[in-house]
Amino acid sequence: MSITTLIKRIQDIMRQDSGVDGDAQRISQMVWLLFLKVYDAKEELWEFYEEDYKSIIPDELRWRNWAVDEKDGKALTGEHLLNFVNNELFPRLKELTVDETTEKRSAIVKYVFEDVYNYMKNGTLLRQVINVLNEVDFTEYEERHAFNDIYENILRDLQSAGNAGEYYTPRPVTDFMVEMLNPQVGDSIADFACGTGGFLISSISQMESQIKTPSDKKMIQQNLYGIEKKPLPYLLAMTNLILHDIDSPNLLHGNSLSKNVRDYKEEDRFDVIAMNPPYGGTEEDAIKINFPTGMQSSETADLFMTLIMYRLKKNGRAGVVLPDGFLFATEGAKKAIKEKLLTEFNLHTIVRLPEGVFAPYTDIRTNLLFFDKTEPTEEVWFYEHPFPNGYKKYTKTKPIRKQEFDAELAWWHNRVENEFAWRVPVEDIKNSQYNLDIKNPNRDIENTQLTKDTIIDNLFDNFENAKTLLKQIKESFNNE
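-> structure tokens emitted (480 positions)
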């Protein structure tokens, strides 16, 4: 049986349970079970290679001792299983003792379960889900890695799960950005709003071919860092990394913006930062005071851009996903942030993505900003990512694909202006009050026939831009 079919069976069982409401809860339920199953498989390997290995999980709470059905009629099910999960398993895992001497691979169990819940109310259905999961042997490398592809599909399902969609950046986007950032073994790599860990996973994949010794693999593991504020994506990221054989993920459950940026020292900075900061959200005043006065903003993405600049090492490089609103704003915090970016960093490339890349979560157009901490910006190259032939926009059923970045890949190291690429001197940007929303000058506008769809799309763009400007004006009034 394929793992795809297995996951569908689990989802179909959960849909019968009255306690599980919607895709987000269904995925959360599946992933805490998956985490315990995967963790138990990893513990089997640790026990095999390490004679003195001791689990942080009490023996009776380990997956192998309560979840496996030996077909002897003694497996927990129904009310007995529910009572065990709700009144034994969850409370005791949440209360595990962790201190500075606890190994990270052990401490993650407590961290994962701090904000996780059991939504299922039918113990018989829960037993059925557990039995299906037990059909996969995660001690086998092939099965563990076969599950990675299915895991990606689980993450895509989040896009139709309301606000949960913000956790997921399409894999073709993370892979392209990381390939351009070109992380090397020995580089420290960070994502300060890591969601489900997509950029970290792409970084691992990018460096796999560089691994020559066991110490190289260990160095990659030690140098990956992520932090995530919300419990569901944190659980997803932790499980995702463990599935990719990162035994002790450097993942924190918290808010990256909660520390004053002026307090960061050299040891707190990174060689590579790749991320898609949450945008459209707001932060409270207690968070804003952690940033310089001119850069204090209620817009989450603005604060993350400032954080990135404070936490990038000298000669470090960064790739960030940002909406159009950040590019065209010419007042307030956004202007101050862009002024710092162009003055203290080399913003060398902006890839302008078309509509629908993040559909169905949002149709807002986004941009990939690439910069490094080497020298002030002299010019910015823009690349307008075209739709494939026959596409008017990306959708959930017609998502962006990795091969569609082949044109950017071919152009990247041999840059010439063409139909999709152009460059702008930094002085022109400064003279426009740091407006980075620069249209492609190489398109033959006069010969471009506007269709009804194009006109409607342009109207939607203007409406989104107007909303962003009104929000900025309101914010400036509130700060007076």
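DSSP finds 18 helices and nine strands in the chain.
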